TrEMBL record:
Keywords: Oxidoreductase
Protein's name according to its UniProt entry: LLM class F420-dependent oxidoreductase
The keyword Oxidoreductase is annotated on this UniProt entry: yes
Origin species: Streptomyces dengpaensis
Pfam families per record: Bac_luciferase
Listed transmembrane segments: none
Length: 343
């Protein structure tokens, strides 16, 4: 199991720690570093900044939101950064949810998310392989555009720039069972939002056809969940940032009737707790929502506590299908301890 550093997205402004953390992770032998986006900072610009200040570590987006860019635009970002970094780019993509897609990006959330995802990945792969002009008679992504409000003058094109790698890895941040199952068929890897090494059966049906090696690729299918990590003596205190994240995602990152994160928590055995967190958060009682997150759930999807406890729990992560553990770590000490324990 390889280690990656997950930096997430910016809050109020850029973090002065991100580049030093990425450099320290590279020095410690971490395989990858990952950036993200929500409705503020984008995923690609900070990753490019990090690429210019590192030399070996792989560079991933976890995740770049599909609604933010057309698939050809995303492919342009990926092939450009892949060239500039010497072949270190890993493209992680995600649909996001209706509130963000319609509220922030001002476009409809696809009625058939599986189809929209499949078409998006198809177009990105066509660009990267550059075998022919990009053409797709899609429901959501038509190339050339054939809608009734167009001019009819669109022309199928190949990228001017020759991509450095035709098989640049594409990973998908999928949460629903059908979406995860499709991910194993069309992508090079999967980016689970929450992963519990003590209940992998939550994903058994979705991963039933997990390929060992993706067709046309020499690499194994990647399973790369994120987990917040912190070496500390007080476990309850160390879990507070995990609970704050869960309270926000489960309570506020979606509508009361359609929240993919809450649905996932329910499938992992915490249905009643997920509903309660939503009720508290949506009624404006946010602090109570965070405190209502069960310590047990926050603990099983993270690595928090003294070194000896983390060492013991890290063994559980190694036993399952996880190939890459993407660590949300707040300090260099935690990064160093994990690197030492994972050797």
């Amino acid at each position: 199991m390889r280690l990656g550093l997950a930096l997430g997205y910016w809050g109020r402004g850029p973090s002065a720690d991100h580049v030093p953390l990425a450099q320290e992770a590279e020095r410690l032998g971490y395989h990858s570093v990952w950036t993200a986006e929500s409705w503020g900072s984008d995923a690609f610009t900070p990753l490019t900044w990090i690429a210019a200040r590192t030399s070996r570590i792989q560079l991933g987006t976890a995740v770049a939101q599909m609604a933010a860019r057309s698939p050809t635009t995303t492919a342009m970002h990926a092939l450009t950064l892949d060239h500039l970094s010497g072949g270190r780019m890993m493209l992680g993509l995600g649909l996001s949810g209706p509130q963000v897609v319609e509220g922030w990006y001002g476009r409809p959330f696809p009625k058939s998310p599986l189809t929209a995802t499949r078409e998006y990945v198809d177009v990105v792969r066509q660009v990267l392989r550059r075998g022919a002009p990009v053409e797709l008679d899609g429901r959501f992504h038509s190339h050339p555009y054939r809608g009734g409000d167009g001019t009819g003058l669109g022309k199928a094109l190949k990228p001017i720039t020759h991509p450095l790698r035709a098989e640049l890895p594409i990973l998908l941040g999928a949460e629903g069972p059908k979406n995860i199952a499709q991910t194993t068929r069309i992508a090079d890897g999967w980016l689970p939002l929450y992963w519990s090494p003590t209940r992998p059966q939550a994903y058994d049906a979705s991963l039933a056809d997990l390929p060992e090696v993706r067709e046309g690729s020499s690499s194994h299918f990647l399973v790369a969940p994120m987990a917040r990590a912190r070496v500390c003596d007080d476990i309850s205190e160390g879990l507070l940032p995990v609970k704050a994240m869960l309270g926000f995602y489960i309570g506020g990152m979606g509508h009361a009737g359609r929240n993919f994160h809450a649905d996932l928590m329910a499938r992992m055995g915490y249905a009643e707790e997920a509903r309660h967190i939503q009720e508290l958060f949506l009624s404006g009682r946010r602090e109570e929502a965070v405190l209502a997150v069960p310590d047990a759930f926050a603990d099983e999807i993270s690595l928090v506590g003294p070194r000896e406890r983390i060492a013991e729990r890290l063994e559980l992560w190694r036993k399952g299908p996880v190939t890459d553990l993407l660590v949300l770590a707040p300090d260099p000490h935690t990064l160093r301890v994990l690197a030492e324990l994972n050797t």
